[in-house]
Design goal:
The chain has 10 helices and 11 strands. A hairpin with a 4-residue loop joins strand 7 and strand 8. The longest helix is centred in the middle third of the chain and has 15 residues.
Length: about 325
Amino acid sequence: MQSNPTGGNGGNGGDRGDGANGRAPAHVLVVDDDPTVAEVVAGYLDRAGHDVARAADGPSALARFARRRPDLVVLDLMLPGMDGFEVCRRMREQGGPVPVIMLTARGDEEDRVLGLETGADDYVTKPFSPRELVLRVESVLRRARLPVPAPGTSPTAGVLRTATLSLDPVARRATREGGELALTLREFDLLAFFLRNPGRAFSREELMSEVWGWDFGDLSTVTVHVRRLRAKIEHDPARPRLIQTVWGVGYRLAETESADTGESAGAGASSDRPPPDTWTASDAEGVPDTSPSSQDPPRRSPDPSPSPRRSDHP
């Protein structure tokens, strides 16, 4: 571990409140084997008004998780014996989609992407600002809290649907062809955003701002979540028909969908994606991925001039 992994001072967190922004305090589990990091993070979260528990390794974290399910987990990746990836997997198995923010001292992007693919909702790389971490915690908690339906509202009011998908923002429940989907917090929010805006193309920057609530961040976060969401809702994630790639722009949800095949009826769905053997997400994004399902738009040029081969239909 680094000597000053937080890049901050644990004694400058401000006065303790009654929960961030006046909200009810959340129960946050901080898992880190470095006592300095754990103390600083826990101190800042405590002063932000949250109820904080601490664990120094994977087994004790899982034991605390089983005794009292937290509202959010701040989880170090580099734990002794059982790393953060495995802890996150086991927490998902035990308690479903509890929001997780991973802490990592590694600079390797592959580890950060793997953390997201394991089910983490966000990550922060050491050294980090404790204040920034608190803001990330608040952002994740804000989206995790259930909206309160208006009095007299029908139980089905506000439910978002396609021919095969149904998403209830109030109950935070999503189904595909009647079967419930196991979505993480961010996957659910991303799908809800697409369902509210069918047919419109969004860039990664726009999705990060609208879904994550951030004006800055690693755009591979969006790439990974789109990939994971496609794997759960598409009939063939290698040839996505619902969440379409708009080459050089970003992503869009197909406006219409065939009920019997799940394929979109939107025009130009296949032509928006360049042939997989000529352009891949890993080429443009630097995201380690060999899966054919990640047909993501490049970031290297906002409006590249396609070669004759790319302009042909696959």
